[in-house]
């Protein structure tokens, strides 16, 4: 029996698509950008070096809980015995949040799995099971990764506060690194708070908004942010990589920090 796009319940169209625009540009661009980020992030995560240039700590390594360089551990080193890079201890949480994100799922399903590659374009797969089977059924734990993402965002906010110190840990410093970290944490908060799960958490399971005015206001605010969720997803992806790259170049002595005061 024919399945997938050729199944009896689907439109019987032989052409892959009737679209005449360059529909393939969007999934191709997504594939390239995601691939570059994954390669870069993987290399940096396994390097285990050049992630701290006092007072800046790379977001890939925050909080630094393993065997970290002096000054990088603001919460101690409970996993000092960990033989691999300290980044591998904590990246699972922001990575899990992004991988299970509703927008990112749409983006990489189309770009990497061609499921489907674009609207009104037939997918090449013979069957479709959605997210009802392993491993995609694990996407349903996204809301739990959201809680972890909030904790990570709080820690990165704390890192920004510490970035207003100089290399001797004296307050009153501001450099380009401070500014980049500040912009990054704002974008991360916007991405986190505009999440669909956040919208459900603040306003879901309510029968009468009139009886919950505070939650209704929060739900309204998050709903406005939610409309820009894809943009915040991209902006925060770029910003976290840029901050890590800047700190990497500082730590290995390639550049000097631009200081404003």
UniProtKB/TrEMBL annotation:
Keywords: Membrane, Transmembrane, Transmembrane helix. The keyword Transmembrane helix applies. The chain crosses the membrane at residues 23-43, 81-104, 144-165, 171-191, 232-251. It comes from the Bacteria. This is Succinate dehydrogenase. It comes from Nocardioides vastitatis.
